[in-house]
Amino acid sequence: MRRLLSLLAVLASPQVHALCSVIDTAPASFGSVSSTLVRTTVQSASTLNGGLQCTGSLVSLLASDDHFYATFTPPAGSTGLLGPTGDVIGYTLYANNTTNYPIARSLPYDFARNGILDALGLLNGTTPKSVPLYLKSLSGSNVAAGLYQEVLTVYWNISYCWGIGIGSICLGRQNLTGTTSLTVSLTVTNDCQITSPNISFGSAPVVGGFSTVNSNVNVSCTKGSNYTVGLNDGQNVSAGRRRMKSAANNYLAYDIFKSAGSVRWGSVTTARRASSDADINPGAGTGTGSQIFNYNAKVYTDQATPPAGTYLDNVILDVQF
Fold it and tell me: Where does the signal peptide begin and end (predicted)?
C-alpha cells in the first residue's frame, strides 16, 4: 500500500518590529543666561532623549488606534523653574522644534499624531532612536541670580501595531507603560544695565575757571543683588590724582568725588560705592528699577595752568557682585 505524503514549506522573511522601551531621560538645560536676557528674550533649550527609545518597524504609517502618549507632570504646586529665593521662570515644552506643537503640563500628549514620530523616523531602521523634546522660556521673568530647576515626572503609555499582514491583520502589538523623570534647568547670572554720561568741563583760560560738574551714574542690576561700583584711576594718574592729557603731552589734573562731597570715588575697597550707598533707591538691585549714584567732578585749582589745548581721559566704571 502506498501513501502520498504532501509536504508544504513556507519560507518567510524574519519579522523586524519596533522595540520600544522607557529609559532615563537626558536633562534639558537652558545654560547660563543673564538676568536681563531672561527678562527680555525668549530662551531655547532641548534634549535628544525624552525617555522613550524605539528600534525598527515594518511600517512607518501609524494607524488611528495607535498611540504614543506622554504626560509631563510637575511637582505639586510648581508652575515653572524654581530658584533659590522662590522666584519662578515659566517655560513651555514642545513636541518638535517649532512652536506649533505645545505640550500642556499634566495632560497626555500623543506623539503619534501630526506625523511627529514619522518625521523623526523613530519607527524605521535598526538604529535606536529617542524622542527629543524642545523648550522655550517665557519672557518677562524678573528674577534673582542662581540655579532654577524643575523635575518633571514623565509617564509614557504606548500601544503600537508593529506590522500589518494579509487582510490588514495586525501581526503584533506592543503595549508599554513606564515612568521616568526629566530635569529642566537654567542658571541666571548677575547683570547690570549702566548709563553713564561723559563729563565735560567745557573751556576756560585758567584752571580756576572750570566749573564743577554735577552728574550721576544710573545702574539697574539683577533683582536681589548686592554690588559695588568702582571708577578706575583713568589713563594718566599721578600722585593719586586723575589727569587729562593733551596731544602735546601736557596734563590737567582733576578728580571725581562721591555724591556732593569731597571723598574720591575709586576702584578698590572702601573707595568703591556699595549699592546700599546709592543716592536714589539704595539697597539691593531690583532688576527693573534704577539706582542712582551722584558725583561731582572738579579740576584741581592748586596746579599751574597748562598750555592751551584739548585734554582727554578715559575712566572705566565697573560693577562687582
Answer: 1-18
Quick: pLDDT tens for 203-213. Answer: 999 999 999 99
Q: How confident is the model over 222-238, as pLDDT tens digits?
A: 999 999 999 999 999 99
Structural domain including 105 reads 19-29+46-75+89-136+150-184
Q: Are 91 and 38 in contact (CB under 8 A)?
A: no
Q: How far is CA 311 from the centre of its chain?
A: 43
Residues 23 and 169 in one domain: yes
How far apart (Å, rounded) are the C-alpha atoms in residues 164 and 256? 83
Residue 87: C-alpha distances to residues 13, 90, 91, 143 (Å): 59, 10, 13, 6
pTM score of the predicted model = 0.86
The helix (run of H) or strand (run of E) holding residue 191 is none
CB of 173 closer than 8 Å to CB of 162: yes
211 and 297 belong to one structural domain: yes
